[in-house]
Every structure is written in structure tokens, then in C-alpha cells.
Amino acid sequence: MSKFIFSSPRKYVQGAGVLDELGPYIAELGNHAFLVADDIVWKLIGERAQQALKTANIDFVWQQFNGEASSNEINRLSELAKAQGCNVIVGLGGGKTLDTVKAIADELKQPVVIVPTIASTDAPCSALSVIYSDSGVFESYRFYNKNPDLVLVDTAVCANAPARLFASGIADGLATWVEAQAVARSHAKSMVNGDPTIAGLAIARACEETLLKWGFSAYTAVSEKRVTPAVEAVVEANTLLSGLGFENGGLAGAHAIHNGFTAIDGEIHHLTHGEKVAYGTLTQMVLEQRPDEEIARYIRFYRSINMPTTLKALHLENESWENLVKIGALANSDGDTLKNLNPNLSPEDIANAIVALDAFSKTVN
After folding, report:
1. Catalytic annotation, pick one of 99, 122, 258, 336
2. Is 255 a catalytic residue?
């Protein structure tokens, strides 16, 4: 029997300057906030966040995020939040910070507020976290029974982050429709364990359309730290459309191959999530036998926003075949989503596609 599920945050707020309105929105959920942010993010927006909460008469405590969305970090921060008697959990920062606070809120059964400071991942809106080891190796997905209670995105803050991170969000978002199509074709389940809804697939398609239409102009505007209508559209696509699209449409090869890259050591780990997902998206297209010109279109677009399309750009040009097969093996593991693309692929099939993409990309002008 088919079961169609659509899941989304309770409230999504986006605009330049909305960080200063954080207090009243949090007041709808609790009066004692546990704030989590790394030291860099706290120096950038901590004072504004504190002032917004003080204005709304919300008590708060800040704890520094140590950088990895690991079980140990989740447990450490959960104990601190519990000891403080906090009744709303607030994450400020990037994807791993936000995945961590979702886990903390789940542990304590408290509402969670997500405040992205970069438009670089689709983590903010989802009811799941990607869990890594303390050393950064992918371990599992952790699923929750609800999405965040509030996602608040200040586009002026996001536009002041490095343009490379904004471009990474575009690359991450472009995987959304590619993967959702694979899930629909294979009659696999979405990330909320249901059949993809018409709404979920429509949102995933709109994500791709928005990014290909305005992604480059938005990227150039953010390079000048400007907020334009194109930037607002792309921030929404990177955050809301991609988040709803991947969760309700499902994941397949692009993100599984990204996770596979964590199987090896090296310079690749200095790349962003979106940069690795970009190569994973193209590799999925090769495995799907998509038309050459369709893959070439994506390659040209990725290049326009400085995303990697070759093994050299991934720092893998000298990687051994054995290690490429290790990437394929981890990507193809039972706990990941590659089987939503094709359950019959081998680690060697994936490694061959990774190498073949590199060769094809070098021919694209």
C-alpha cells in the first residue's frame, strides 16, 4: 500500500535584517534558550542575537560548538542544556552546527530554532541530521519525528559569508531534483519514509529551475556582498526548496557519493559539502546514462560558480584505484541512499563513473 508523506518546518522566515526579530519568534516557543554556535559565528552575530533575545525578555546561555556533528558532541551539549534547564534549543551557523542542535532538541524533547548564517546546505529545514565520527567520517542519518519549529534566515548575513559557500549551497541544491527523479523512477521511499508527494516533487523541480535561472547572477551579487531579488530567490532555493525537496522527494546517488568521499584521507576534506555533492551529482548522471549534453550543461554551470568538475579539482587526480573503489563501497553501503538510484551497482561501477566523469568533463568547452 502506498503511503504519501509531506513534512516541513512549522515556520520559515527569510529576509535581510530578520536576525534582529529573532526574540519574538523564539518567545512563541520558550523563555530559556540554549544557544549553540561556533566561535567564528558567535563573534559575527552573537551580539545581535543576544540583543534580540534580551529585548524579548528571554533568558539564554551560549555554548560553543566544537565543529563535528558527532554522537559525543551531541551528548556533551545535551547534558549542558539539560543542566541549565533550557526549554528551547537554538542553533546559529552552518550545517553541522544545525544538525547537532536538532539532535540536542530531540534528546531533550524541546523545540528547536534554526538560524543559518550561510546559504550553503539544505540542512536547516529537515527532520534529520547527518552524523559523523569525531574525525569526520560519515556514520549514519538520524531521523526525527518533527521538523524544526522555526527556521529564520537573514539574507544579509548569508550574503556577507564567503561567495564560495553560497555557490556550494547552489551545488547542493542542484542535486535535489536529480536525486528526487531517481527516487520516483525506482519507487523508493523519501527521507520521511513515504512515497514522494506531488508537492515534494514540484518543489524539487522548482529548486532546479530557480538555481539554473538565477544562480549565476546571485553568485556574482554575493561576491560583492549585495542582496538582490536574485539572491533572495536563490537563498530560498538553497534552504527551503532544497530542504523540502530532498526530504520529501528523497536522496539517491549524489549525496551517497559525497558520503563515500569520507572513506579516504587527503586534501578532498578541505572542500565544502556542496563542492563534493557537485561531483556526486555529475557522477550520478553518468550512472543514469543521461544524455551527454545534459551532463555538459551542468558541468558548464558548475564551472561558472567555481564548483569542481574534475578529479584534479577534487584533489583526487593521483588517487589509487583501490581508494576509488573504497569510495564506491562506502557510497553503496546499506545505510546510505545509492540503492535508490540502482540496487545492482557495485563499488567498481561507481569508481568507473567517477573516473569517466573526469575524462568527459575535460572535453566540455
Report:
1. 258
2. yes
**255-289 b/e (C-beta count within 10 Å ≥ 16 → b):** bbbbbbbbbbeeebeebbbbbbbbbbbbbbbbbbe
Stretch 263-287: mean pLDDT? 96
pLDDT attached to residue 34: 98
Residue 1, pLDDT > 80, answer no
Q: Give phi and psi for 27, each to the nearest 5.
A: -60, -20
pTM assigned to the model: 0.92
Are 169 and 238 in contact, with CB atoms under 8 Å apart?
yes
List the catalytic residue out of 106, 255, 336, 358.
255
* 187 is an active site residue: no
Cell numbers at 65, concatenated:
560548538
Residue 68 makes CB contacts below 8 A (sequence gap 6+) with 96, 132, 133, 134, 135, 136
pLDDT at 2: 76
Under the phi-then-psi rule, with left for phi > 0, alpha for psi from -120 to 50, and beta for the rest, what region is 262?
alpha
Q: What is the pLDDT of residues 21-53, one digit of tens each?
A: 999 999 999 999 999 999 999 999 999 999 999
pLDDT band at 129 (very low <50, low <70, confident <90, very high): very high
Q: Is 106 a catalytic residue?
A: no
pLDDT digits (tens, 9 = 90+) for 202-237: 999 999 999 999 999 999 999 999 999 999 999 999
Residues 84-102 as b or e (16 or more Cβ within 10 Å = b) = eebbbbbbbbbbbbbbbbb
| Identified catalytic residue from 38, 273, 336, 358 | 273
Please give the domain boundaries of the chain with CATH numbers for all domains.
Answer: 12-159 (3.40.50.1970), 163-361 (1.20.1090.10)
* Active-site choice (172, 195, 336, 358): 172
Catalytic, 172? Answer yes
Grouping H, G, I as helix, E, B as strand and the rest as coil, residue 12 is: strand
pLDDT of residue 122: 82
